[in-house]
Amino acid sequence: MHYGSARPEILTYDPFKAIIAPRPIGWIGTLNADGIPNLAPYSFFMPMGSNPHMIAFSSEGMKHSSINAQARGEFTFSLATDALKDAMNVSSGAHPDGANEFALAGLTLGQPVEIATPFVAESPAALECVTLSVEPLVDRHGTKIDRYLVVGEVVQTHIRDEYIVDGRFDTAGAAPISRLGYRDYATTDRLWELMRPDD
Length: 199
Ligand SMILES: Cc1cc2nc3c(=O)[nH]c(=O)nc-3n(C[C@H](O)[C@H](O)[C@H](O)COP(=O)(O)O)c2cc1C
Description:
This protein is mainly beta. The protein has one domain (22-178): Pnp Oxidase, Chain A (Roll). The protein is built from 5 helices and 14 strands. Strands 3-2-6-9-10-5-4 form a 7-stranded antiparallel beta sheet, with helices on both faces. The protein starts with 15 loop residues before the first helix and ends in a 12-residue tail after the last strand. Flavin mononucleotide is lined by residues 25, 38, 40-44, 58-60, 63-65, 92-94, 179. Flavin mononucleotide binds at residues 25, 38, 40-44, 58-60, 63-65, 92-94, 179.
């Protein structure tokens, strides 16, 4: 099977997100114009590179997170984990500006060091970011498509002490969740190692 813009009927739902899976979830914290915390998950999310460490998320329409990240010039990332999945889900609701999803989801505000935006204190790891750009995306015809790529530079990394084991971040212990297609998620709790040919 192959197809272009018209999906065959046998595919009830668009499999795009099920194919590009698992996707890490950027659990994005921001502050609104009144300084009220905002929190929402974004799975169109990726690390963009290291030194400096950069991360990006894509917003389908300008939502609170991208508006706030642009206006305030900063945002946070918190690692969404199996233990925090219900809170992550609550924070994805279409809550009005100023709703404070941290409070709605029963989460504690983690205190940032270099910026003003809080992160999820319960999360095993979090990043403070300075917004570098909020770019409207265009399609192949150059038409703006109401999608926005938010890129940030990491200025502080927070790791809860219990997740540092033998000098490494304990990913399996943290059990991060990732987004698949449809309403599916996966938990990373078992790792395997593969050495490179040049190691
Ligand atoms: C796991 C998950 C991943 C999501 N990823 C995205 C995404 O990448 N882009 C997007 O625009 N919305 C995404 N959403 C929906 C937003 O989280 C939702 O629209 C939310 O209300 C936006 O909040 P905000 O307006 O406070 O930014 C996702 C929802 C869930 C549950």
